[in-house]
Backbone:
């Protein structure tokens, strides 16, 4: 912020201001040419008329006196016309009076030089001329009592005196006329003076009103200029200096400043000077400015006149700053100020700025505070707008940085992250998405997500209808479409957010081509190995079975024990291989099911019979608890047995010794539900979501001890789903858990 000294741009309206005396002098001097012309004309007429009556010497002498008076007055008039300001009004008035008195005396001299003794006709002519001159002059001289009175006395009295001395016939009327003249002059002069004063006062009031109007006009022009500048720059940097310069011109001040008030962390006000302006540059002011600049133009000391205005929140007017000790006087090192006004500026109830103006020669009054109100209001608005803009800028910067930060994170993640709007239009596309799909962000933005995931809407039909924020889908396996037209498997999760009432969908896409490929290889490998193992293992198990049956002779105890172990393990291995092959068949969609109506009770009873032998090993009893009569379901008999075997063997395996596994059948809507409830440890909470996944086992020592492949439930789930049923479990409140499977009813039944 420079220390500004630029000239103001407002028009100057100079209304000439004159005092009453100046008006008077002007009027008196302006009348001189006319009055001198009349004087010369009357002088000539009188001289010619008297030429034959009185002595020529007297006539010439009187004319000389008259000429002298006329010349002197012309000279005065000439100087007045070309006057310079060195002679003031009072002096011109004195000069004029002397001239008029001289002219009066010159006319008065005519009584001594031009009176035609013993010729009453010419005496009357002289008297008539003097009376005419006097009364004529009075029309202009009346506005100055001294001039008028002096002229009348000096011009009329000598003739009156002469006439009395001569005992002339018109002496008495002439004397009375003189007295009347004097009275008339006095009253006319007083009246003329009053008229002049009235006129003058009216004019003065008019001028003051005009000036006030002009000031207001200039004020609103300054405000408009400042507003235009502020709108252009959105900054007070250029606005305030210009506004301040105009304020100084309007208030006839030579120094001023506009400062913004901040409150520090201790809630103490500080004044940040935005602009400082001086019409007259001086060394002390420069020094003060430099000192202030070192402190970032911030005044923190409030123990001074400025501080008093801020702390009191009221305008301070000081017309003698050197003696004004309010608040401690002027701040240290402040430029020499004779008069000062400090106006605190409020925005609502908050003090936001201080306007200071100084050095008006004849001092300030409350009127100036009133006059500047529109300006101070404007300053408050500018400061408020600047503060608001500053806040906005900070906020935008923060948002920009956050956006950059988020984008950097999104671009760095391995998965493709795509956001779409409620119409399916792509709104953002990270680096990983570019790599996976082969599109550049700019070419895919605002196109439809169908271009990348054609089956998205089919697999999530309600996607754009839901209004609340939640995860719509996670871990869906869909097909993606690359830019080159090739399809590839993706793992897709989508969630919905609502930002400012606008729904935003965030899709996370993982290319699972490699994973799928590896899975295929693994499945192929397992399938091949299992097939290769099954035939020799069947022979081994068969051979061990014959040995174990004793048909080839009795074995000693140690041999029999080894045969038992070998047989058990070969059966276990057979089960594992069968499970693996089943799973592979299911995944490859190669398992054909023979779905027919079946009696579920028969199925379950048979399963209990078959699996009781296995349960006996764990000293567990399988018990049928509730059954509907002859309920037919749709299913494949062998596969239902397989599912029952899995669930019953698990229940027995995980039950405590002498535990009871309860098996119930009931009808649930369109399904018959088989529930198998055990009294074991139950399913650990963290494992519940994974229990139906392939090869998953709760990683407890129990499971390991009890053996198993982790495939039984996965196969059961696949089988039940293919039979259009459901499978699941519910943890029991105390111990154990209930596994269930449901199969569609083949006929309508009545539940028990
Ligand atoms: P496994 O052949 O290992 O039994 P499953 O798929 O049948 O394979 O079971 C998977 C895992 O689920 C088991 O290893 C066990 O941890 C848990 N599980 C299954 N049934 C029960 C049950 N009734 N009680 C406790 N845990 C069970």
Residues:
């Amino acid at each position: 912020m420079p220390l500004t000294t630029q000239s103001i741009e407002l028009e100057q309206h100079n209304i000439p201001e004159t005092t009453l005396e100046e008006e008077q002098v002007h009027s008196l001097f302006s009348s001189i040419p006319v009055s001198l012309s009349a004087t010369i004309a009357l002088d000539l007429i009188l001289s010619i008329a008297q030429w034959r009556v009185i002595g020529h010497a007297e006539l010439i002498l009187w004319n000389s006196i008259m000429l002298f008076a006329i010349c002197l007055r012309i000279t005065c008039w000439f100087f007045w016309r070309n006057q310079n300001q060195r002679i003031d009004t009072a002096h011109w008035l004195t000069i004029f009076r002397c001239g008029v008195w001289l002219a009066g005396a010159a006319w008065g001299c005519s009584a001594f030089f031009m009176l035609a003794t013993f010729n009453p006709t010419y005496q009357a002519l002289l008297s008539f001329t003097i009376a005419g001159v006097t009364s004529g002059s009075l029309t202009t001289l009346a506005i100055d009592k001294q001039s008028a009175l002096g002229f009348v006395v000096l011009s009329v009295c000598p003739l009156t005196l002469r006439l009395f001395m001569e005992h002339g016939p018109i002496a008495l009327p002439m004397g009375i006329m003189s007295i009347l003249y004097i009275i008339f002059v006095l009253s006319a002069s007083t009246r003329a003076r009053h008229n002049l004063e009235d006129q003058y006062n009216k004019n003065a009031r008019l001028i003051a009103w005009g000036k006030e109007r002009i000031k207001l006009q200039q004020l609103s022009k300054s405000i408009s200029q400042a507003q235009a500048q502020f709108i252009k720059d959105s900054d007070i940097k250029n606005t305030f200096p210009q506004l301040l310069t105009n304020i100084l011109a309007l208030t006839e001040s030579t120094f001023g400043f506009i400062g913004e008030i901040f409150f520090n962390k201790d809630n103490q006000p500080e004044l940040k000077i935005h602009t400082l302006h001086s019409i007259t540059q001086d060394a002390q002011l420069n020094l003060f400015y430099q000192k202030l600049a070192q402190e970032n133009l911030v005044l923190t000391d409030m123990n001074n006149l400025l501080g008093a205005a801020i702390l009191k929140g009221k305008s301070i007017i000081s017309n003698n700053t050197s003696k004004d000790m309010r608040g401690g006087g002027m701040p240290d090192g402040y430029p020499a100020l004779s008069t000062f006004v400090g106006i605190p500026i409020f925005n609502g109830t908050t003090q936001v700025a201080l306007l200071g103006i100084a050095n008006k020669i004849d001092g300030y009054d409350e009127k100036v505070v009133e006059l500047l109100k529109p300006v101070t209001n404007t300053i408050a608005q500018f400061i408020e707008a600047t503060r608001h803009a500053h806040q906005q800028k900070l906020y935008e910067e923060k948002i920009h940085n956050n956006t950059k930060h988020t984008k950097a994170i999104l671009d760095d993640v391995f998965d493709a992250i795509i956001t779409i709007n409620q119409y399916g239009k792509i709104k953002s596309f990270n680096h990983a998405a570019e790599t996976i799909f082969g599109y550049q962000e700019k070419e895919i933005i605002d196109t439809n997500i169908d271009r990348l995931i054609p089956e998205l809407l089919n697999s999530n039909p309600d996607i754009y209808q839901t209004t609340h924020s939640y995860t719509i889908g996670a871990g869906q396996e869909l097909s993606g479409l690359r830019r080159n037209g090739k399809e590839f498997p993706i793992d897709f999760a989508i969630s919905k957010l609502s930002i400012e009432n606008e729904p935003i969908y965030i899709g996370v896409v993982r290319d699972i081509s490699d994973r799928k490929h590896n899975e295929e290889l693994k499945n192929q490998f397992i399938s091949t190995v299992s097939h290769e193992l099954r035939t020799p293992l069947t022979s081994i198990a068969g051979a061990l079975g014959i040995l174990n049956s004793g048909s080839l002779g009795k074995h000693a105890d140690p041999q029999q024990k080894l045969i038992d172990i070998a047989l058990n393990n070969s059966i276990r291995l057979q089960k594992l291989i069968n499970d693996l092959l089943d799973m592979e068949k299911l995944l490859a969609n190669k398992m054909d099911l023979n779905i027919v109506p079946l009696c579920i009770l028969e199925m379950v009873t048979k399963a209990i019979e078959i699996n009781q032998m296995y349960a006996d090993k764990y000293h567990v009893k399988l018990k049928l608890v509730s059954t509907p009569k002859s309920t037919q379901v749709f299913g494949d008999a062998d596969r239902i047995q397989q599912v029952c075997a899995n669930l019953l063997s698990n229940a027995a395996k995980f039950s405590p010794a002498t535990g009871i596994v309860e098996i119930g059948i009931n009808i649930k809507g369109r399904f018959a539900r088989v529930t198998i409830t055990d009294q074991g440890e139950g399913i650990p909470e963290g494992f519940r979501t994974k229990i139906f996944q392939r090869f998953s086992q709760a990683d407890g020592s129990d499971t390991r001890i009890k053996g198993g492949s982790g495939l039984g439930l996965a196969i059961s789930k696949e089988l039940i789903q293919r039979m259009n049923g459901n499978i699941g479990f519910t943890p029991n409140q105390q111990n154990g858990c209930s596994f269930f499977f449901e199969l569609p009813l083949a006929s309508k039944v009545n539940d028990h």
